[in-house]
Structure formats: structure tokens, C-alpha cells
Design a protein that fits this description.
This protein has about 375 residues and is α+β, with helices and mostly antiparallel strands. Helices cover about 25% and strands about 20% of the residues. Strand 9 (about 220-225) and strand 10 form a beta hairpin. It starts with about 20 loop residues before the first helix and ends in a 32-residue tail after the last helix. Bound molecules: iron/sulfur cluster (SF4) (2 copies). One iron/sulfur cluster (SF4) binds near residues 135, 138 and 171.
Length: about 375
């Protein structure tokens, strides 16, 4: 007779999120009355039952050591009953039910060097990708650029002194593991040349069919050279995405001279006031200049300053630009409009302006 196999746990996916909700959230799930920001970095939720939850937000590093994680866990044990969460932009939030713990928690976080803020009309943590630290397709570093930019913009994290929310994202290639398509300001690193083929290494390292199939634009073709099966790249079809390098390490794109960064503006996910918007190109190319990328920092700061001075209350970057018009945006920021701003992708016609209505640009808006 066959023995019955004991039930085994085979699902290795993440546990159900409800398992880790703080008791106050479980109790009041879906029954919250209102929320308000009490001061930078402190958000209060009040439930229909009268229960209160204070979320205290601090800027956490995107790449976090075990020492830092242990520190956050120790702070959470002391002030928030062990409950914390990470936001989608890598802020850390401590979920506190005892109002008396809020002030000492803020003090402790500041003492440890973690600024409290990033809520409401401010700049929150920059969401970013792996960069040179980890990913093979990176056209720039991520942590280095983000640290340099945020060191400059940091006062806007602790104060709510901007017209509206300002969300910044960074991605180190156009495969875009960051939220660059939908952020108020997006920094996107890019390659500008097709892959260089190492003809010696390719037949030994790569499978020709998978290498050919890896290209989304069909730019890679099989080719026989000196009796060896290899590939060629139709350069006009290449969009420098580095997908082929993921599959075949003998096709490198990294190029110290030609890799660099572009800046995009006006994206958002929110439905408030205006439907979600895609980011659009502001600056096509800034060369890599490690370790502090001063040109990128200056460009982002300039856009933030112009937005802060000219946008109306609550207006997001894209909403402001739409109101004043793109010509006025380029005029106010002093950014040069070039041929690279004109979309020449084969489906571009669908996004071109098709009406006779024009946004004129008066001297003052
Ligand atoms: Fe890698 Fe590109 Fe993602 Fe950066 S954005 S981590 S280079 S895939
Ligand atoms: Fe194709 Fe992208 Fe490689 Fe260019 S970089 S050949 S588009 S896979």
C-alpha cells in the first residue's frame, strides 16, 4: 500500500502581506476616516473607530547594509512596536500608535543621521536602480549620481516649501528599472553606440539563435566570418538597449566617452487634477562626470528652482509645463531646444500635436 506523502510547503513566493500588518491597521482595514500631514515627515491617519496611526518617514539609503537594517529594527522595537515599512521610493516609515513616541523617534532618527521629511510638497527620496555597483547594462552609476543630486536638493526633503509634490527618479539604462517614465524629474542614463562585437569570443561564449532573438528591433543577424558562425548588427536599427549584452557578453555597449545621462520632466502617476502623465525629454545628453556629476546636479537644481518660483500651489511639474506651454518651459529654464527633442520613432505620428490650437508664450506667466 502506498504511503501517503506528508503535505509539503512548496510555494516559495512572498508570504501574504496581511500576515505582517500592524494590529491597528488590521483592526481598521478599509475604515480610515481621514489623514493629514502634521509636520514634515509625520503623517496622521485617523480611523472611524477613533484609533490613530502616526507614520514617521525618514530618508533611507537605497543600498542598505545589514548594520543599517539592524539599526532600523532596533529603532522600530523601541518606538513603533517593531513595525516599519519601506515606501516605493525607498523611504523608511515607522508606524507608531503612541503619540508620545513620535517626538523622541524623530529626535533619534535625526541623531542617527537619517533626515525626517519627504511628505507633501517636498522632494522625497530618489528612487533608483543598480548602476555600476551591480548591473551589467548600466550606462552610468546610480547611487553616485543620486547621492550628489540629493546632497544639493536635501533642504527640500526636510521642508514642505515647493508648490506641489516633486518626485525624482533615476535609471541607469533605458530598460529602466526605476520610475523614470512617470516622475516629475527623471534622470536616465543612456548608451549612444551599438554593441561592439568581440568576434573571437562570441562563438565560444554565446549561442547565435538566442543572441539574434534577444534584439527587440531585429538589428542582429547571423553571419559567417572566416568559416565561424557569428553575428552582425545593422546599426541603423539599434536603439542601444543592451538586451543583447544580457544574453551574449561578447557584445559590449559600455563606452566611457559616449555613455552619459539625459533629463526628462513632467511625469506623474497621480490622478489628482490631471490624468497620469509620461515624462518628456528636457536635456538629451550630459556626459558622465564621476564622482560628483556636477553638470547633472546643476541641471536638476535649475529645473527645481524654476518650478519652485513659477508653478502654482499644488501644481505638479507636468501640470505647470502644460499650463505655461513647453516653449515657455525651455525659455524659463534656459535649456536649449534641439533636434533631439523631436520624436522620430516610427509611431511618433500618434503623439504629434494634431490640432490647430497653439499655446502662445507671453513674456510673463
Ligand atoms: Fe540594469 Fe538598466 Fe535596470 Fe540599471 S536600469 S539596473 S542598467 S537593467
Ligand atoms: Fe539590438 Fe539592443 Fe543590442 Fe542594439 S543594443 S543590437 S537594439 S539588443
Amino acid at each position: 500500500m502506498a504511503t501517503e506523502i506528508a503535505t509539503r510547503k512548496t510555494d516559495i513566493g512572498p508570504p501574504h502581506y496581511q500576515k505582517y500588518l500592524p494590529p491597528v491597521i488590521k483592526k481598521n482595514y478599509g475604515k480610515w476616516k481621514f489623514h493629514e500631514i502634521l509636520k514634515p515627515g509625520v503623517l496622521l491617519h485617523v480611523a472611524e473607530s477613533g484609533d490613530k496611526l502616526y507614520s514617521v518617514r525618514a530618508a533611507a539609503p537605497r543600498l542598505t547594509s545589514t548594520k543599517t537594517i539592524r539599526l532600523f529594527a532596533e529603532i522600530a522595537d523601541q518606538f513603533s512596536g517593531g513595525y516599519l515599512r519601506y515606501t516605493s521610493r525607498n523611504n523608511i516609515e515607522f508606524l507608531v500608535t503612541d503619540e508620545k513616541q513620535v517626538a523622541p523617534l524623530v529626535e533619534r532618527l535625526k541623531k542617527e543621521g537619517y533626515p525626517v521629511g519627504g511628505m507633501g510638497p517636498s522632494i522625497t527620496n530618489i528612487v533608483h536602480t543598480q548602476g555600476w555597483v551591480h548591473c551589467h547594462s548600466a550606462a552610468s552609476d546610480a547611487s553616485g549620481v543620486v547621492k550628489s543630486v540629493m546632497d544639493e536638493l536635501f533642504p527640500h526633503f526636510e521642508k514642505m516649501d515647493l508648490p506641489g509634490k516633486l518626485r525624482i527618479a533615476f535609471a541607469c539604462c533605458l530598460n529602466m528599472c526605476g520610475a523614470v517614465h512617470c516622475s516629475d524629474i527623471a534622470i536616465l542614463a543612456l548608451h549612444r553606440l551599438p554593441p561592439k562585437i568581440n568576434k573571437e569570443a562570441l562563438p565560444k561564449m554565446c549561442e547565435i539563435p538566442t543572441t539574434v532573438a534577444s534584439c527587440p528591433t531585429g538589428a542582429i543577424r547571423p553571419k559567417m566570418i572566416d568559416g565561424k558562425q557569428t553575428v552582425e548588427v545593422i546599426e541603423e536599427q539599434c536603439m542601444y538597449c543592451a538586451n543583447c549584452f544580457t544574453v551574449c557578453p561578447a557584445m559590449t555597449l559600455a563606452d566611457a566617452e559616449n555613455d552619459g545621462l539625459s533629463i526628462w520632466v513632467g511625469g506623474k502617476v497621480s490622478n489628482a487634477r490631471h490624468e497620469p502623465m509620461f515624462s518628456k525629454l528636457a536635456i538629451p545628453f550630459i556626459p558622465n562626470n564621476p564622482p560628483r556629476w556636477p553638470e547633472v546636479v546643476a541641471a536638476v537644481k535649475n529645473i527645481v528652482d524654476v518650478y519652485a518660483k513659477n508653478a502654482s500651489k499644488y501644481e505638479r511639474m507636468g501640470e505647470w509645463i502644460e499650463r505655461v506651454g513647453w516653449p515657455r518651459f525651455f525659455q524659463l529654464t534656459g535649456i536649449e531646444f534641439t533636434k533631439y527633442h523631436i520624436d522620430d520613432f516610427k509611431h511618433a505620428g500618434e503623439s504629434y500635436k494634431r490640432s490647430a490650437q497653439l499655446k502662445h508664450t507671453p513674456a510673463e506667466v
